[in-house]
Amino acid sequence: QVQLVESGGGLVQPGGSLKLSCQASGSILSINSMSWYRQAPGKQREGVAAIFYNGNTNYADSVKGRFTISRDNAKNAVYLQMNTMKPEDTAVYFCNAVIEASEDAYMDYWGKGTLVTVSS
Predict the structure, then answer these.
(1) Taking all residues of the chain, what is their mean pLDDT, rounded to a whole number?
(2) Three-state DSSP class for residue 116
Protein backbone atom coordinates (compact mmCIF):
# COMPACT_ATOMS: atom_id res chain seq x y z
CA GLN A 1 0.00 0.00 0.00
CA VAL A 2 1.28 3.44 -0.95
CA GLN A 3 0.81 6.62 1.06
CA LEU A 4 1.61 10.24 0.35
CA VAL A 5 1.93 12.61 3.30
CA GLU A 6 2.24 16.36 2.89
CA SER A 7 3.74 18.75 5.43
CA GLY A 8 4.80 22.37 5.70
CA GLY A 9 1.52 24.21 5.33
CA GLY A 10 0.56 27.12 7.53
CA LEU A 11 -0.05 30.84 7.70
CA VAL A 12 2.26 33.23 5.87
CA GLN A 13 2.09 36.95 5.16
CA PRO A 14 1.84 38.31 1.62
CA GLY A 15 5.30 38.43 0.10
CA GLY A 16 6.51 35.66 2.37
CA SER A 17 7.78 32.15 1.68
CA LEU A 18 6.80 28.63 2.58
CA LYS A 19 8.13 25.21 1.64
CA LEU A 20 5.91 22.18 1.28
CA SER A 21 7.14 18.61 1.45
CA CYS A 22 5.54 15.36 0.37
CA GLN A 23 6.85 11.94 1.32
CA ALA A 24 5.79 8.78 -0.48
CA SER A 25 6.03 5.49 1.38
CA GLY A 26 4.97 1.88 1.03
CA SER A 27 5.41 -0.62 -1.76
CA ILE A 28 7.13 1.52 -4.41
CA LEU A 29 9.09 0.18 -7.35
CA SER A 30 9.48 3.53 -9.07
CA ILE A 31 7.86 6.95 -9.29
CA ASN A 32 7.17 8.63 -12.61
CA SER A 33 5.79 12.13 -12.14
CA MET A 34 5.28 13.97 -8.87
CA SER A 35 3.04 17.02 -8.76
CA TRP A 36 1.41 19.63 -6.58
CA TYR A 37 -2.22 20.64 -6.99
CA ARG A 38 -4.27 23.11 -5.00
CA GLN A 39 -7.91 23.79 -4.32
CA ALA A 40 -9.10 27.16 -3.08
CA PRO A 41 -12.48 27.53 -1.33
CA GLY A 42 -15.29 27.33 -3.86
CA LYS A 43 -12.95 26.53 -6.73
CA GLN A 44 -11.90 23.45 -8.65
CA ARG A 45 -8.63 21.70 -7.98
CA GLU A 46 -5.88 23.00 -10.26
CA GLY A 47 -2.39 21.87 -11.14
CA VAL A 48 0.40 24.00 -9.72
CA ALA A 49 3.64 22.28 -10.68
CA ALA A 50 4.91 18.92 -11.86
CA ILE A 51 8.31 17.27 -12.02
CA PHE A 52 9.20 14.16 -13.97
CA TYR A 53 11.76 11.46 -13.23
CA ASN A 54 14.22 13.07 -15.66
CA GLY A 55 13.92 16.39 -13.83
CA ASN A 56 11.78 18.22 -16.37
CA THR A 57 9.26 20.56 -14.80
CA ASN A 58 5.98 22.28 -15.64
CA TYR A 59 4.35 25.20 -13.85
CA ALA A 60 1.00 26.91 -13.92
CA ASP A 61 1.28 30.42 -15.34
CA SER A 62 0.06 31.88 -12.05
CA VAL A 63 3.11 30.58 -10.13
CA LYS A 64 5.91 30.77 -12.70
CA GLY A 65 8.89 32.63 -11.34
CA ARG A 66 7.62 32.37 -7.75
CA PHE A 67 7.32 28.64 -7.04
CA THR A 68 9.96 25.95 -7.53
CA ILE A 69 9.29 22.22 -7.53
CA SER A 70 12.05 19.73 -6.77
CA ARG A 71 12.33 16.07 -5.89
CA ASP A 72 14.64 13.66 -4.16
CA ASN A 73 14.35 10.33 -5.93
CA ALA A 74 16.34 8.53 -3.25
CA LYS A 75 13.85 9.66 -0.61
CA ASN A 76 10.71 9.37 -2.77
CA ALA A 77 9.97 12.97 -1.88
CA VAL A 78 8.83 16.10 -3.67
CA TYR A 79 9.04 19.69 -2.49
CA LEU A 80 7.42 22.99 -3.40
CA GLN A 81 9.28 26.17 -2.52
CA MET A 82 6.82 29.06 -2.62
CA ASN A 83 8.16 32.62 -2.66
CA THR A 84 6.58 36.05 -3.03
CA MET A 85 3.29 34.58 -1.97
CA LYS A 86 -0.03 36.24 -2.66
CA PRO A 87 -3.43 35.98 -0.97
CA GLU A 88 -4.70 34.15 -4.06
CA ASP A 89 -2.24 31.33 -3.28
CA THR A 90 -4.44 30.44 -0.31
CA ALA A 91 -5.65 26.88 -0.79
CA VAL A 92 -5.33 23.30 0.30
CA TYR A 93 -2.27 21.91 -1.46
CA PHE A 94 -2.28 18.27 -2.52
CA CYS A 95 0.61 16.05 -3.50
CA ASN A 96 0.12 13.66 -6.42
CA ALA A 97 2.41 10.94 -7.72
CA VAL A 98 2.24 8.36 -10.49
CA ILE A 99 3.76 5.30 -8.86
CA GLU A 100 4.70 1.82 -10.01
CA ALA A 101 3.58 -0.22 -7.03
CA SER A 102 3.78 -3.53 -8.87
CA GLU A 103 5.64 -4.39 -12.05
CA ASP A 104 4.44 -2.32 -15.02
CA ALA A 105 1.36 -1.16 -13.09
CA TYR A 106 1.39 2.62 -12.63
CA MET A 107 -1.31 4.24 -10.54
CA ASP A 108 -2.24 7.72 -9.39
CA TYR A 109 -1.89 8.44 -5.67
CA TRP A 110 -2.95 11.50 -3.69
CA GLY A 111 -2.09 12.92 -0.30
CA LYS A 112 -4.74 14.29 2.03
CA GLY A 113 -3.60 17.88 1.60
CA THR A 114 -2.07 20.65 3.66
CA LEU A 115 -3.63 24.08 4.17
CA VAL A 116 -1.73 27.18 3.09
CA THR A 117 -3.12 30.56 4.09
CA VAL A 118 -1.63 33.82 2.83
CA SER A 119 -2.91 36.70 4.90
CA SER A 120 -1.73 39.70 6.87
Answers:
(1) 96
(2) strand
